[in-house]
Amino acid sequence: MESWSIRGCTIMSDMWTDIKERIFINIIGYSPKGDVFLNSFECSDVSKTGLFLRDILELVIERVGSEKVVQLISDNTSNYRVAISLIMEKYPHIQRIKCAAHGVQLLLKDIDAEIPWVKEVFEKAKLIVTFMYKHETVLALMRETTNNRELKKPCKTRFASNFLMLKSILEVEDLLRVMVASAEWRANRHCNSEMVLRLVDGDGATSPFLYEAMQRARNTIIDRCNRDSSNYKMILQLFDSRKNENILNHVHVAAAFLNPLLMCEGKISYYNDDVGEAMVHIVRTMIFPHDKKQFVMELKKYYEKDEKLSNDISKEMIDSHPHK
Asked: What distance in Å separates the CA atoms of residue 77 and residue 65, rounded to the nearest whole number?
């Protein structure tokens, strides 16, 4: 919490229901130094209106110190939208950031629902996973062959789980091919299953990094579709729609630009339209009037790579960064 005076604080809030059907609103403070549980309010018998949420969040903001709060993160329900809009009217420097994880889930849900060939791949993968875990002898042989590596199972409410399931299959694909070619497999009574024959006949992420990661993901979609627009056009439409509506905010773009690991390696430029718009937004809404001149001067030194910033120590810190 001591770091909030220097780096600022993100307030995160969501609702959850326990096994006794009681409803709680949890509020957590976050900064690069870690998470701090701030408060929990039981609201089972209260109407969770925007005004009610506004009062609860404002109580916490005042306790933390409004000047320390950079952004509020919540789900995309209408009552939270109203609450945070009212808070932003009182504290214009505080930004509303939608939950990026939820936005990515919605994007993956769109892809699963709208792209036929993707849905077909998921269905085949589910058959493989179901088959492996349905038969004890098959499961034992799979675990022996893969050195006890497990396949991920899909979850109906988490569409990212479909992609994680595919990833888990691809990670052991070569080992599974060895398995179905082994004498142990041929001796298994399930060895002629058509489901497994489909497998062997087949062909084989934080705010400062989110914007660049989304750009990289977009390019990867195009490359993985062999740059065939008939395969990726609809996916990109869904991708761009969710990216702009539910995932990215000006703050994410600005954070990417202010991330020296990306900027110094030329992965992001101030002259990118998104970056220019984001930095104007930051100066206009998040920097207090008496700090704006100093902020712009420091920003200029940053993107011109002032020698005091680009010294050997800073370069060594960039080279040793874990995301490098």
From this structure: 26
